[in-house]
Amino acid sequence: MIKVLAKSVREYKAASILSPFFVALEVVMECLIPFIISKLVNSIDVAAGATVKMSEIWMYGGILIAMAFASLLFGALAGAFCAKASAGFAKNLRKDLYYKVQDFSFENIDKFSTPSLVTRMTTDVTNVQFAYMMLIRMAVRSPLMMVFSLVMTFVMGGSLGWIFVAVIPPLALLLFLIAKKAMPLFHRVFKKYDNLNESIQENIRGMRVVKSFVREDYEKQKFDRAATDVQMDFTKAERILAWNHPIMQFFFYGVLSTVLFLGSYFILRSNGATSVGEVSQLIVYGMQILMSLMMLSFVFVMLIMSVESARRICEILAEESTITSPENAVTEVENGDIDFNDVSFKYSAAAERYALEDVDLHIKSGETIGIIGGTGSSKTTLVNLISRLYDATDGAVCVGGRDVKDYDLTALRNSVAVVLQKNELFSGTIKENLRWGDANATDEELVEACKLAQADEFIQGFPNGYDTFIEQGGTNVSGGQKQRLCIARALLKKPKVLILDDSTSAVDTQTDALIRKAFREYIPQTTKIIIAQRTSSVEDADRIVIMDNGKINAIGTHKQLLGTNSIYTEVYTTQNKKSNDDMISGGGDNE
Amino acid sequence: MSRSPMRGGKAMSGRPPKRKMEKGIMGRTIKAVFKCYPKMMTFALICLIINAVISSIPSIFMERVFSVVEKALKANGGWAEYGAEITWNMLTLIGLYVVSLILGAINNQLMAIITQGVLKKMRGRMFDGMQNLPIKYFDANSNGDIMSYYTNDIDSLRQMISQSLPQLLNSTIMVLTLFFIMLWYSLWLTLIVLGGVFFVLLVTKIVGGGAGKYFVGQQRAMGKTEGFIEEMMNGQKVVKVFCHEEAAKADFDKVNEHLYDQSNRANRYANMLMPILGNIGHVLYVIIALIGGAFIIGSVSNTSIGTAAGSVSIVFNIALVVAFLQMTRQFCNNINQVSNQVNSVVMGVAGAKRVFDLIDQQPEADDGYVTLVNAREVDGVITECEERTDVWAWKHPHGDGTVTYTKLCGDVVLDEVDFEYEQGKPVLQDVSIYAKPGQKVAFVGATGAGKTTITNLINRFYDIADGKIRYDGININKIKKADLRRSLGIVLQDTNLFTGTVMDNIRYGKLDATDEDCIAAAKLAGADDFIRRLPDGYNTMLTSNGANLSQGQRQLVSIARAAVADPPVMILDEATSSIDTRTEAIVSRGMDALMHGRTVFVIAHRLSTVKNSDVIIVLDHGRIIERGSHEKLIEQKGQYYKLYTGAFELE
């Protein structure tokens, strides 16, 4: 895991090394300062000489101030480098994660849900950033501080130094035990806490349901139970952690008393050879040692807590895209021929059922194919194989006479345009959105594509026309408008194959017909595949494919199928009940 | 302990500008804590204060011990003579330590209990209050915003109660105690230390302020990055289909770089504060040592409370200066502590303010007094009864003390209703609708025509501006909201299922429904078939709003949920929009059975769903433009006809 993460340090390696380096210098200064202070105190100490030596005070004072400034400088530099290193590391991690996801195949994307991907790139990275900051500053500082201080206690206090040596192991052990005992509790309670927050979110989202069913009191009780559970666990864990402080205090007081008492004893016994200044600074060192231990246990706990985040990040970084371009890939798609040669497909190797079974379908370039079938009949699955969004499990899918696996992915997908069922617009102007199809398209080309998609008229109706800003998720255009913009965007690719996956469901039937008419007249060479819910959208197709349970149930024209194919006939008649020649409007799920 | 320690910065952005308000919030927070645990908190506070005072006095004993040592050295005395005095001082010190330890431990334990208790209480108050807020509130505030009350703000509140406030109090008490001890020893030296403190505060303000500014910037950049990532991840499949990966990367780099910049600056300032403050302390120490030394040499006379009382040497001596130096150090440490805590207290206050804001939100008003009761009908006379009879009646108490009962039938009348969500933007104008018991009324119209608004008024999610709505002849404003809603079943387009089994979710409609009731309701809704095919059938766990079901399946479950409640009036708002036409054909039989004998309001995009309604109401910009049966409207060749023939688009 560390190896995977370390790759993201890159250009911040220098800062990552300089930070602990300056921390070390700072620690050295901080440890020498009490030593000089004791000298300073000694020079005040009359017992050491006849009178107070003012010159010595000046000297040590000067050294001390110089050291304080050095310490300040090192500390500030360490802090600055640490900030740079950790912020940079976080930046690279986010970048690596984001870049990785860009290379993901649909299968990879399905594996991690969208919210989970977002959390990993935000909260988790922030947690790791904080841990990294701890690691290159605190985790370096504390042990160094401890060692240096310990050395200094021996230098200054002689045998009194042993008091500290004696104290460290039991204290470290106790702090470790507390951390160890509290950690699993925290782990558990954080999970519960997450669940609690999730249930709050659910409640907020479902507030209309809650209120409609008058379930406010029920929800309150449910929440109270969960919140009490979280409170109990949190209290338990926090109470264990709350022992950290008294234990520290106990040792601190113990050391202080012992040093003070033995120190006085030694001073008197040695008749002033050990000085007051030395003893009082020993106490300072003692404090530093114990504080470092405390910090260390804190760092330890924080690091362990960020392990989960680190693990979740690594999961993405270690994920290999399931679909990549082959070597010596073909970069030119010859025409819009599509062949499914005995194709079967399942979403995962473990899946029991095939989503597609024994599909054999051959489409000539320029043909218009309609696909009809109920929910779960694998219509979308079928077309997703064409632009190699998924790989067929058995059999082969060919475009332009070659297996899709032979093509360079970019070349293939630029030739096979898909308007997804769950289509998205991005925040930005209409122009910017359209240029996803062709970054170099002229304004005229944009207008032309929009005219084909019957979108030009309503765009011209907007006050800002093609420069109208689309809000995130395309919330300021209606479902039907969004669908037509998405079609225009796909048309700009000038594809050899155009796939519309239920992309006109919110468009009225007349406009729908106009779009299809435009397709016939302006892009006759392009193979058009239209998945639809309503039969009117496919009636005039060259052939209609009826999907049922992952298999092709029938292929034929409207006339051939109507009356002979039970599924097609059923769908047709429910949609045209009572008045046979009337067409049905609507049917969209995104009003 | 915080999981994401950098969250804190967010709260800072909400930093209230007025100091006065901060004080009010702080006072309210403290009051809330005391109200929650009056005895425990008082005890904890006493422990904390005593502990803080005791923690500041070791330097006194050090001074005393060293004084004795000094005296001994001067007198050339040994341990034998002075040991007793030293030991005695030591024993007193140890005694104080023991007291401090015990009090400290008690305080820590109590605070752990109190903090979590108070947090739970606050969470509960927020949640309970939230349940009673009007729907308007949820329409006006995004889910993410409301959620951050429970995560970010509660988190900064926790930080404040468990750490910042106690530490601030502790440090302040120590500072004060030390200040008095210092005054006791030497006025002049104290004044010098105060000068240093002033400097420390100045630096804190400059550096700390810089950190604060960039932390706000970092939080903003974080929000932007998060928004960007969210949008791109949501559209990731589109990115793939359009081979837009490289452009998406370039856009991301820009946002990411800005976040890095802000984060780097914020942390740089924050990281530099401690070394700077700590070393100012050292410098101050040197200054005191120099001046102290000079004072000793010059045998400068000392002025202080102690000298006035006669217990401190009137000339500067070593013991005094050494002890004072020790105090200076401790004093500086605590001042640093205070400056460190001030920031997080400010954040905490901002968080607490938001928490209280939510708690203070005005709950949904309900002046209704007509209630729904079980009833028995004998010879046309309705009497109230305790047990469930499947006959319901409105209990209507009148001003003169009499009570009348009206049988619940499901007769809904809208009489010249006007409504606007925002002042000056009317959504409904002059809408009159008569729905007889058992009738099916359909609403057709473009988005924003006001279809859903009508249903929002019937169940009083919103209150009408003008006109009247009557339910079984009673003005719905007189009906208690809970009872009104209980008599209405609603299935919404955006289905919301809760974490739990499918069975639990159906039972949500009627908490005391048996398994058989739920299954019967599922069968009625046409959901039984697919539920049985789920891995664990009715016991299949649903999580994150039923992510493991298709949208159509979720709609079926939510129809079953409404069905089990068995209300006389049902509102179906695009309830079958995501069920494909083929499945809908299968479900429609169940739906017909479900609607049988109920007053039903249907909103549907798909005209095939509304064709067989008794009345179809066509809305346009908040007005009814056509009404009548399907056949009648087709005959009229008006707007409905155009929609039906596909000449018009429903948007």
Number of separate structural domains of chain A: 2
Principal-axes shape call of chain A:
elongated
> Which fold does the CATH topology of the largest domain in chain A refer to?
ABC transporter transmembrane region fold
The helicity of chain A comes to: 55-70%
Compute the number of strand runs of chain B: 16
The secondary structure category of chain A is: alpha/beta
CATH architecture of the largest domain in chain B: Up-down Bundle
N-end to C-end Cα span of chain A: 46 Å
In words, what does this structure look like?
- The complex is a heterodimer of chains A (591) and B (651).
- In chain A, 60% of the residues lie in helices and 10% in strands.
- The radius of gyration of chain A is 36 Å and the shape is elongated.
- Chain A has two domains: 2-318, ABC transporter transmembrane region fold (Up-down Bundle); 338-575, P-loop containing nucleotide triphosphate hydrolases (Rossmann fold), CATH 3.40.50.
- By secondary structure, chain A is α/β, with parallel strands linked by helices.
- Chain A starts with a helix and ends in a 16-residue tail after the last helix.
- Chain A has helices at residues 2-6, 13-44, 54-102, 106-111, 114-157, 161-205, 207-212, 216-241, 244-269, 276-318, 379-384, 409-415, 430-434, 443-452, 456-461, 479-491, 509-522, 558-561, 566-575, and strands at residues 338-345, 356-363, 368-373, 394-399, 402-403, 416-419, 428-429, 469-470, 497-501, 527-531, 543-548, 551-556.
- Mean pLDDT of chain A is 85; it is low at 578-591.
- Chain B is 61% helix and 14% strand.
- The model of chain B is unreliable at 1-20 (pLDDT under 50).
- Chain B has 22 helices and 16 strands.
- Chain B folds into three domains: 11-360, ABC transporter type 1, transmembrane domain (ABC transporter transmembrane region fold); 371-407, no CATH class; 412-644, Rossmann fold, CATH 3.40.50.300.
- Chain B has 651 residues and is of the alpha/beta class.
- The interface between A and B is large, with 180 and 173 residues.
